[in-house]
Amino acid sequence: MIPARMAPHEARVSGCYAELDAVEVALFVTCLTDTFFPRVGEAVVRVLRHFGCRVEFPEGQTCCGQPAFNSGFDAEAAALARRMIPVFEPYEQVVTPSASCATMVKTHFPELLADEARWREAAARLAAKTYEFTTFLREKLDVDIGAHLSFDEPVTFHFPCHAREAYGPDDLHNWLAGGKQADLCVPEHSDLCCGFGGLFAVDYPEISGPMLADRLEDLAASGARLVICNEGGCTLSLAGGAHRRGLPLRFKHVAECLAESLGLMEPER
């Protein structure tokens, strides 16, 4: 868990940034990041601190309820929304490495609690201050992401479908490329779904499997071996599929790439 690796007092801004001027951010780490990609959570904290944020980790956070919501269990999802809202209520901004979880909070929390007077406004407040990591860098901190990235090999990217609520594949391309177009190999079909979709891959494997194969073929054809993928579910699906097919593809979140490029974390291959 992130708290074991980085206690709340360790997540505060240090160095050249003054705490009184820092943007207060609560990290919503998400289930998949915490369980399978804790390095991504650490990278998000380090990058946000580097760009002047005071980062806190609310230890009471749990699942946002997206699996239940996607399975049609609205009541159970609403219960988790009611639990999550007060956990993050005290914080100025909320940042998550997952576009799908950000969408759950920003779009579906207000929908689920629209008829509950006690929770309606609180859900809207949380929705308004919750950001996916890259959109927070661009919209709130005005960070030129591509200008801070440095690679020693060709790189491509996968656009996660759930990010469409926040940005499009062309936006992601432009943010990653910056002034270093030569480093980025754009896949032929930049908006191609990986076929995961949570329970979609379980309920419809005969459709999900071929979608995954198409996505992997497209990424491999780019000529790059490093794939920037900013969604835990997509990364699990793509990395597993690549391993089973013997494809030499590696996957990293942009937060890891930024942390490595800025010298905040040791490069990992």
Q: Low-confidence segments, ≥5 residues, pLDDT <50?
A: 1-20
Structural class: alpha/beta
List the helices and strands in order: HEHHEHHEHHEHEHHHEHEH
Number of helices: 13
Query: How many discrete structural domains?
Result: 2
What proportion strand? 5-15%
**Helix content range:** 40-55%
Second-tier CATH architecture of the largest domain: Up-down Bundle
CATH class of the largest domain: Mainly Alpha
How far apart, in Å, are the first and last alpha carbons? 22 Å
Mean pLDDT: 90
Biggest β-sheet description: 4 strands, parallel
CATH fold type of the largest domain: Glutathione S-transferase Yfyf (Class Pi), Chain A, domain 2
Q: What's the β-strand tally?
A: 7
Global morphology:
globular
Radius of gyration: 18 Å
Strand order across the biggest sheet?
2-1-3-4
Structure write-up:
- Helix 12 links the parallel strand 6 (226-229) and strand 7 (250-252).
- The protein has a 4-stranded parallel β-sheet, sandwiched between helices. Strands 5-6-7 form a 3-stranded parallel β-sheet, with helices on both faces.
- The chain is built from 13 helices and 7 strands.
- The chain is α/β, with parallel strands linked by helices and 269 residues long.
- It folds into 2 domains: 2-140, Up-down Bundle (Glutathione S-transferase Yfyf (Class Pi), Chain A, domain 2); 146-261, 3-Layer(aba) Sandwich (Rossmann fold), CATH 3.40.50.
- Helix 5 crosses helix 7 (117-128) and helix 6 (99-112) packs antiparallel against helix 7.
- The two termini are 22 Å apart.
- 48% of the residues lie in helices and 10% in strands.
